[in-house]
Amino acid sequence: xxxxxxxxxxxxxxxxxxxxxxxxxxxxxxxxxxxxxxxxxxxxxxxxxxxxxxxxxxxxxxxxxxxxxxxxxxxxxxxxxxxxxxxxxxxxxxxxxxxxxxxxxxxxxxxxxxxxxxxxxxxxxxxxxxxxxxxxxxxxxxxxxxxxxxxxxxxxxxxxxxxxxxxxxxxxxxxxxxxxxxxxxxxxxxxxxxxxxxxxxxxxxxxxxxxxxxxxxxxxxxxxxxxxxxx
Length: 231
Prior knowledge:
The protein has helices at 2-33, 38-47, 51-60, 68-89, 94-100, 106-116, 123-148, 155-175, 180-199, 204-230. It is mainly α and 231 residues long. It folds into two domains: 5-162, no CATH class; 177-230. One of its GO terms (biological process) is L-valine transmembrane transport.
C-alpha cells in the first residue's frame, strides 16, 4: 500500500514537473544574464525554491535590502501552506519534516492537498514522491540554464514558458475538482494577471497571489457571516 502511494506521487510529479524544466532553465539563464555564477544561480533553487521569488532575486539582486520586505511577504505564504499540510503530516518525525520542508512550493502543496482529501494513509510518502523529483529536476535545470547561459536566454524560451505555465496551472486546478471554490481561485488568477502585468510587469508574480488570496479570504468571511445570520 505504501508503495502504491509512492508511485502515485511519482506519477503526479511527472505531470507537474514538466513546466519546472522550462522555468528553471530560464532561472539559470537569467542568472547568467545578470552575472551570477552557476553556484549562485543553483543556490537560489537549493535554498529558496520559489519561482517568483527566485526571478525577483536573480533580476534585482543589486537592490539589496530593498528586497527584504518582499522576501518576507513572499515567505509568509509558506507558513500558511505548511500550517495547512500539518494536520496530515502531524505524525511524521519533526527531523524529516524539517529536512523536506524545502520541497513545499505551490505546485507540490496543491497536489498534496487534492490527494490528501482522498487518502488517509502514508501522506508523507506521497509528499516526498511528489516533491523530491520536482526539486531535483529544478536544481539540474537551474545549473544547465546557468551553464548554457546565452543559448537559453532567448525569446523562444520565454514563449515556451508562456505556453507551459497556463497548462500547468490548468492541470493543478483540475486536480481540485469538484471543489469549485479552489478551482475558482485559479480562474481569478487568470483573470487578474493580464491587468496586473500591464500595471506592474516586474512584480505581478508577487501581487496576483495576494490579490486572489485576499478575495478568497473575504469570500470565506462573507460565507461565515451568512451562516451566523441564519442561526
